[in-house]
Amino acid sequence: MPGTVLLLAASPVGKGRLVDAASVLPVLAAVDPAVLSGTDTANVVELADPLEPQAVLTRLRAAATAPGPLTVFVTGQLQLDRKQRLPHLALARTTPATVRYTAFPWAWVREELRLRAPGTTTLLLDLHTDAETWQWLRDRPLDSGRTNAVYGRIAPPPGRRVVAVPGYMKAVATILRSGSRPAVEQLHELALERLGAEGYADVVLSAPGVDVGAGVGAGVPGGFAPRPPSALKGPRPQTPPEGGPPDGLDIAGLGEKAAGPREEAADLREEAGDPHGVITEAVQAGRHSDADALAAEHEQAAVRAHGRGSEEALHWTEVRADLAMLAGDPVRSCRGWLVVAGARLAAGQAADASAVEAAVDRAHHQWGQIHEPARARELGPELAELRSRVPGRRAGALDHVQQHLVQLQLMG
Question: Do 334 and 361 touch, CB atoms closer than 8 A?
Answer without folding.
Answer: no
